[in-house]
Amino acid sequence: MKLYLVRHGQCESNVIGRYNFVDEDINETGIKQAEDLSKKIKDIDYDIVISSPLVRALHTAKVINANNKDIITDERLVERSPGSLEGKSVNVTDREEYWNYYTDKRYGTEENIPDLCNRVKEFLDELKTKDYKSVLIVAHSGISKAFYVYFNGIPEDGHLLSLGLKNTEIKEYEL
Predict the structure, then answer these.
(1) How does pLDDT run across 142-171, given as a tens digit for each residue?
(2) Structural domains for the chain
């Protein structure tokens, strides 16, 4: 099964560098990014779109769904919860440490990376049982890092920060 993983379009929290778990929609730039991506992927023959239920991902999914396939949501595709970091600048953390798989350091009540990776693993393992040939998945940067771990393993140093997708970037996987 082919998987096409897309990160949602830009939202204001991306612009100002703020931890965000709330239902924030994509901004005008994010809409344009999604429209551009829709044109690029119109020839991909996907069976279904599976999206994070968060507004920024679901809106992106609707815009890029050029083939008008069914869109379903899955809670396991929501972004890593920042917990008590919600709404705070990303500068309140050491970003490399925050995205280190092996870290024991906690900045608040954020979801730990092994838990994030486990819920993505559950999603992907369940997806293996479906009869889809090709799936378009719309999610978040943290989810793209967990996809990386699933398909490539944990980097030796545990650092995942640079492994996430940029807004409306697409990555192909074979499940």
Answers:
(1) 999 999 999 999 999 999 999 999 999 999
(2) 2-174 (3.40.50.1240)
